[in-house]
Amino acid sequence: MTAPSRALRAPGGQPVEGYELAALAHDLRERFAAASRAPAAPEMRRYRLAGRPVAVRAPTGTLLDRWLWALAPWAGAAAGEPAELTVSLREADADEDPLASASSGLRALVLQGEMVTAGGLAAHAHAEGGTISLFDREAREALVLHVGRRPLPGWELAAPLRTVLHWWSESLGAQLVHAAGVGFGGRGSLLVGAGGSGKSTTALSCLAAGMDVAGDDYLWLEGEVPPVAHALYASAKVESARLAAWFPSWHPHPGGGDPGEKQVLPLAALAGARLATRLSVTSILLPRVSHVPRPRFEPVSPAAALLALAPSSLFQLPGGRPAHLRLLTRLVREVPAHRLHLSLDPLANAEAIRGHLETAATHGAR
Amino acid sequence: MARDARYRLRLPEVSLESFEGESIVIDFASGCYYSLTSSATEMLTLLASGAQEAEVLRLLATRHPGASARLGADLDGLLERLLGERILISHEGPPPAGDQTHLGPALAYLPPVLERFEDMREMLLLDPIHELDEATWGPTRAHGAEPGQA
Fold it and tell me: What distance in Å separates the CA atoms of residue B24 and residue B46, rounded to the nearest whole number?
């Protein structure tokens, strides 16, 4: 092995080398395998995510129920169908040190929430959420470990395995996008924008108005023609005050939110058959809370759409790279974009989107 | 002034996407991103293709004859910011091979505008990527690290 000429150094100054990540991956795999040999048989569930079979293993069904409730509508891929991704979940015992085998340098990097990649392996820890994710691109295998005494945070429960799904999508040429998806008849709009732009509330307004919803925060984008957005999470986050004022009959998922943060709604229960699995993306909408008397659409350039879509999609997930921009750029070049000035009437906003999509469908059919 | 300097994008950290009259630049190392409108798109597209400053001015004067008197000052101002933000870096030697530069139709000349956004910066700096070389199992580089860091 050639010694590196310049050591990558962890925050504490310790050098880190690639084989250390491979060693940590081996150790974590061993720990997961040992857990699966425990007296209680591990649970295996099959899902169909973005049209592909995924298997998830965990020591107990209770853990799967709690951690992956937002994926529940996509459960049920055929048992004989080989999984394209296998994910193993575990919660560390209170006295377990999941990084015991890691060098001090690698340990410092991971514990600081930094992403380390080497030889098709990727590791990332979310210190605040207490999760460590490991992805083996070649084996199409992922391990996710929840550590610490605090429960899984609301945002992890609302969008479980997001880091792993991001890495997997990347390996397939797809892309997770920070957007909500609404529509009907299999066609729809992406609602894009930073937090507070009205994305989630608009998506929920569409649901209340009888439209289909594919999620309110993250979608899986495929570069088909037209582009296709797959639903990933049957959850929606909304501020408590807005929930009470606009959607008073809807109740948050029990244990799904964090005190003082947004409430997490169970989209599957609220939407039923209107929870869309996938939408052909025919428009991009940039909501803006303008409080205009009636909602209004204003055409925007592809550059403006990319400006609204790309930074939050690329920087909120670990490992955003220039290559990830290609699919987003193609999307904004192919699909018309409008700024949607929102009124104070949620149903009027939703009806405006419905009309906008109907108009687009009519023009597209000509 | 000779104006024979050439520049290039600070690849691979910086991405440039150009549309008609507008460009988006994302700096994956710093977490900053930029919107360029009007003549700034033309200037950056030409500079990033490796054109010398003099060539850029000559081309712009052909496209915008009514603005030729101010082009030099406008280019200097933009170039100072592009270099300051490390979107462009100096390039020695012949222009880098690449796709032919397409500027699209000439629009009415407006002074260059470069807008900087850094609302995602904190997020990226929390999540730098440390790549370790597969062959040597040693470090390659760290995306998202501040200049000077490994």
Answer: 15
Predicted structure pTM score: 0.87
Return phi, psi of residue B29, to 5°: -85, -40
What pLDDT does residue A317 have? Answer: 79
Q: Which phi and psi angles does A195 have, rounded to 5°?
A: -55, 135
Identify the pLDDT of residue B132: 63
Assess A101–B contact: CB distance below 8 Å, yes or no.
no
CA trace torsion B131, B135, B137, B142 (10° rounding): -20
Identify all chain B residues contacting A319, using CB atoms and an 8 Å cutoff. Answer: 127, 129, 143
ipTM: 0.78
Contact B24 A307 (CB under 8 A): yes
Would you call A39 exposed, middle or buried from its count of C-beta atoms within 10 A (0-12, 13-18, 19+)?
Answer: exposed
- Cα distances from A138 to residues A47, A118, A120, A141, in angstroms, run 20, 12, 7, 8
> Which of A259-263, B59-63, B72-76 has the weakest average pLDDT?
A259-263
Average pLDDT rounded to a whole number, residues B78-103: 85
Q: Please give the Cα distance from B26 to B117 (Å, whole number).
A: 10
Q: Yes or no: say if A90 and A58 are a contact pair by the CB < 8 Å rule.
A: yes
Say yes or no for a CB contact (<8 Å) between A16 and B130: yes
